[in-house]
Amino acid sequence: MKTGIIIQARTGSSRLPFKVVLPFDHTNAIIEIILNSLKANSQGIPVVLATSTNGDDDVLCKVAGNIGVDCFRGPEQDVLGRFIQAAEKFNFDQIIRICADNPFLDVAGTMMLIDHSEGEAFDYIAYRVAGNIPSIKSHLGLWGEVVSLKSLKKIKEETSKKLYYEHVTNYIYEHPDKFKIKWVDAPELVYARKDIRLTIDDIEDFNMGKEIYYEMKMQGIAFNTPNIVEFLGKNAHYIDIMKAQIKKYTK
User: Fold this and answer.
1) Residue 241 Cα distances to 13, 19, 161, 196, angstroms
2) CA distance 210 to 207
3) Considering 2, 87, 116, 242, which has the largest number of Cβ atoms within 10 A of its Cβ?
4) Cα torsion for 68, 69, 72, 78, to the nearest 10°?
5) Nearest to 17 by CA among 201, 143, 141, 178
6) What is residue 179's predicted lDDT score, i.e. its pLDDT?
7) All structural domains of the chain
8) Residues 6+ apart with CB under 8 A from 151
9) At 37, phi and psi to the nearest 5?
10) Which is more confidently placed, 208 or 26?
11) Residues contacting residue 170 through CB under 8 Å, at least 6 positions apart
12) Please, which pLDDT band fits residue 251 given cuts at 50, 70 and 90?
């Protein structure tokens, strides 16, 4: 079984266009931070950036090329199809899926998901938080998820709903009886935290994340989950902002 890391990214965000290529830490954009981190810590697993054929996304392929990461271009709205096509092109049977709006991605924690397969062929492996919520649907923005190409193709065969083509793995955890799923409880220090938001959705998230990233970098603090939680504990004003953002995006 060949495993590959695929990062989904595009510049056409409705709330904050081009957010992944805006300067984030004075030298690098979010997409550069994520690609560099993955490339340095991927344990030899190939890394691919999957973006759209929209001309605005040319810049993403340029960034990937400068870092030495392959770039695949597919449908803009059919993200599920984009993943399937990218996996087929690079002969990936298993995909570590990464979203490009998570600059605080815990790469080590994400890579550990592979170890949780325990030699079994699971369709889907991911962290979950309190309430049996997939971490990918939380505000944390800390980890990716593992999914098989076979499962993505199964989704294509079973549904044509736009929701499932845009949100690649929703169909899997909404239909657990159809897939072999391995849930891994998120680390205890964040498992029940409903006041941490590190994903970048709008300008408020971006500006706050930029400040946190800069302060941690200047203090020489390594970017991992325990260190981030400790930093936020010492800088509670960021938690107040996060709570407001979480409330804004809670339906």
Assistant:
1) 21, 19, 35, 9
2) 5
3) 87
4) -150
5) 201
6) 98
7) 3-193 (3.90.550.10)
8) 123, 124, 172, 179
9) -65, -45
10) 208
11) 163, 164
12) low
Instruction: Give the pLDDT of residue 150.
Output: 98
* Average pLDDT score over residue span 35-62: 97
Q: Which residue has the tokens 């993403």?
A: 60
The token duo for 135 is: 């971490």
Of 61, 50, 37, nearest to 89 (Cα)? 50
Look up residue 15 and give its two tokens: 């709330």
Distance, CA of 79 to CA of 134 (rounded, Å): 19
| 146 phi, psi to nearest 5 deg | -115, 130
Q: Name residues whose C-beta falls within 8 Å of residue 134's C-beta, 6 or more positions apart in sequence.
A: 126, 127, 128, 145, 169, 173
Structure tokens at 16: 């904050």
Per-residue 3-state assignment (H helix, E strand, C coil) for the chain: CCEEEEEECCCCCCCCCCHHHCECCCCCEHHHHHHHHHHHHCCCCCEEEEEECCHHHHHHHHHHHHHCCEEEEECCCCHHHHHHHHHHHCCCCEEEEEECCCCCCCHHHHHHHHHCCCCCCCCEEEEEECCCEEHHHCCCCCCCEEEEHHHHHHHHHHCCCHHHHHCCCHHHHHCHHHCCEEEEECCHHHHCCCCCCCCCCCHHHHHHHHHHHHHHHHCCCCCCHHHHHHHHHHCHHHHHHHHHHHHHCCC
